[in-house]
Write a structure and sequence with these properties.
Urate Oxidase, 265 residues, alpha+beta
Length: 265
Amino acid sequence: MKNARDMQSEKDTRNVEIQKVGVKNIKYPILVLDKKNKHQHTVATINMYVDLPHHFKGTHMSRFIEVLNLYHGEISVNNFGKILDEMKETLDAESAHMEVEFPYFIEKAAPVSGATGLVEYNCRFVGASNDEKDFVITVAVPVTSLCPCSKEVSERGAHNQRSIITVNFRFNEFTWIEEIIELVESCASSPIYSILKRPDEKYVTELAYDNPRFVEDLVREVYVKLDKNKEITWFSVEAENFESIHNHSAYAFVEKRTNGKSTID
């Protein structure tokens, strides 16, 4: 092959700095920490970006994949900061940003029969490194919510629906994904399960009926419990109820009014 010009490294004269440039939607096997089994293999969707000074024409896209391959899928809270540093060094950048979204599975036993099955939770790691590092974990938890108003006005039953409660948080000490999931589920009308026998279905139906929750109740209950956790420095909570008797969703959002940083190397 003839000697080709390095087009990306050539000068650009438009004087426009780019805050984020990189690669998106990389499907990649990763290894995440699992409280019960130590590790869990899953497949993530990864976005990787760096900044680009105004005088450079382009960045080197292949180098993002090279950095990713250095860690052979072992991407976790423990080495996220190192990957960001590697991105900055390899791409000669001042800042780096990485988003890793993945399904996380927990084996749950049905409340009466004990039948076990895997429940999927969508999780996300977002890290940024500029003058300092920032790291946010997102956990989306499916639950059941039962309407207090419907219970109050109805003579026979009350409408309920599946809801998604999403928690974003920063921390000063390591926090297990499983602990966040357990906390969120305790604030709902009922957890959900992948397998329910008839006695289980009776149990969760009656549990939800005894614990009615508006969408506002969901975010407030989670807020109160998260606020007691001194390991979590900042959080936001949002809930969406996929209403069973309306052609719309109900939604609520709360945020802790502080900007505590996560501790990552």
